DNA sequence: CGAGTATCCTGTCCGC
DNA sequence: TGCGGACAGGATACTC
């Protein structure tokens, strides 16, 4: 499940392999993969052909390739999306959704996505930051050089909800998914259902700094593990196996205090936390 | 309008 | 062995 560090690994791989290359032809193998391109698959393929890729950019979990002209090829990997740089003739992956061939005859770019939560689309880039339109409402992520920590803390405290919900809201801070939210809360020793209006500024700064630390660590681990010719979003899985303190650790002892980690139901999914280090707020 | 929830999808795992 | 159900979860359309 790609979160920000995995998406950044993919962005770097794309920067290495598709920059300054011109798209020759596009195959859309599954229409759902381009459902966010409202004009449809044939329009997507026709408009992408002949375009040259000028940059590989990212905000939060959104990834896009700037094209010549003021447009971008936007990608979201969803739950299971992968960008693969593949030599011709290599057998198609079972869940190949979109293929880009290039005019230089070099390796092609494949979008592979088992569960089709992800997708590709073309959009104008707008505003001073030259963002694709669907990214306009996404907040800066903690790895963005222009990320404003105090503004993000203020954004969280302005919400009237639980802390974990606020962390997952991509319009407040982007790039934090279920795994990193649980890890950040564990590091900050805060329960996810703590009301945001009772969160102190110091607690807010602590939990966001923790999120940034977890992301940095995952990027260090994932950024070195992918093959130069195979841009693989699963590159960071080794990090998850070894380094998670809370997420997925139900009944295993907390690394700080030894208390078994608890699993709770949250928004039709799961939250993991230490009952002792992260006590439930009173009354909840 | 803000908060919370239902929904999309498919592969894996578990119990019977 | 095979089947049914739970589970994984980002983003958004939807309701209240």
UniProtKB/TrEMBL annotation:
Residues 245-279 form the FPG-type domain. GO terms for molecular function: 8-oxo-7,8-dihydroguanine DNA N-glycosylase activity; class I DNA-(apurinic or apyrimidinic site) endonuclease activity; damaged DNA binding; double-stranded DNA binding; zinc ion binding. DNA binds at residues 95, 115, 159. It catalyses: Hydrolysis of DNA containing ring-opened 7-methylguanine residues, releasing 2,6-diamino-4-hydroxy-5-(N-methyl)formamidopyrimidine; 2'-deoxyribonucleotide-(2'-deoxyribose 5'-phosphate)-2'-deoxyribonucleotide-DNA = a 3'-end 2'-deoxyribonucleotide-(2,3-dehydro-2,3-deoxyribose 5'-phosphate)-DNA + a 5'-end 5'-phospho-2'-deoxyribonucleoside-DNA + H(+). InterPro entries: FPG_cat (IPR012319), FPG_Glyclase (IPR020629), FPG_N (IPR035937), H2TH_FPG (IPR015886), Ribosomal_uS13-like_H2TH (IPR010979), Znf_DNA_glyclase/AP_lyase (IPR000214), Znf_FPG/IleRS (IPR010663). Involved in base excision repair of DNA damaged by oxidation or by mutagenic agents. Acts as DNA glycosylase that recognizes and removes damaged bases. Has a preference for oxidized purines, such as 7,8-dihydro-8-oxoguanine (8-oxoG). Has AP (apurinic/apyrimidinic) lyase activity and introduces nicks in the DNA strand. Cleaves the DNA backbone by beta-delta elimination to generate a single-strand break at the site of the removed base with both 3'- and 5'-phosphates. This is Formamidopyrimidine-DNA glycosylase. The lineage of its organism: Bacteria, Bacillati, Actinomycetota, Actinomycetes, Pseudonocardiales.
């Amino acid at each position: 499940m790609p979160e920000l560090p995995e998406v950044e690994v993919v962005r770097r791989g794309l920067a290495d392999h598709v920059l300054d290359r011109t798209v020759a032809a596009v195959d859309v193998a599954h229409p759902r993969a381009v459902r966010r391109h409202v004009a449809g698959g044939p329009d997507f393929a026709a408009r992408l052909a002949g375009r040259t890729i000028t940059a590989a950019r990212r905000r939060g979990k959104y990834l896009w390739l700037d094209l010549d002209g003021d447009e971008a090829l936007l990608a979201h990997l969803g739950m299971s999306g992968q960008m693969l740089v593949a030599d011709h003739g290599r057998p198609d992956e079972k869940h190949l959704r979109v293929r880009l061939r290039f005019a230089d005859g070099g390796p092609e770019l494949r979008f592979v996505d088992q569960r089709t939560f992800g997708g590709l689309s073309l959009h104008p880039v707008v505003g001073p930051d030259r963002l694709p339109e669907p990214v306009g409402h996404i907040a800066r992520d903690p790895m963005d050089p222009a990320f404003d920590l105090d503004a993000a803390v203020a954004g969280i405290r302005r919400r009237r909800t639980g802390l974990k919900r606020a962390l997952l809201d991509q319009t407040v801070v982007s790039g934090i998914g279920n795994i990193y939210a649980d890890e950040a809360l564990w590091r900050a020793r805060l329960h996810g259902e703590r009301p945001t209006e009772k969160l102190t500024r110091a607690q807010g700064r602590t939990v966001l700094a923790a999120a940034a630390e977890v992301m940095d660590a995952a990027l260090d681990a994932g950024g070195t593990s992918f093959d130069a010719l195979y841009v693989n979003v699963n590159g960071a899985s080794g990090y998850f196996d070894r380094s998670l303190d809370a997420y997925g650790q139900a009944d295993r002892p907390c690394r700080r205090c030894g208390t078994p980690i608890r699993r709770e139901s949250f928004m039709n999914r799961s939250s993991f936390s230490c009952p002792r280090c992260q006590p439930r707020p009173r009354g909840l």
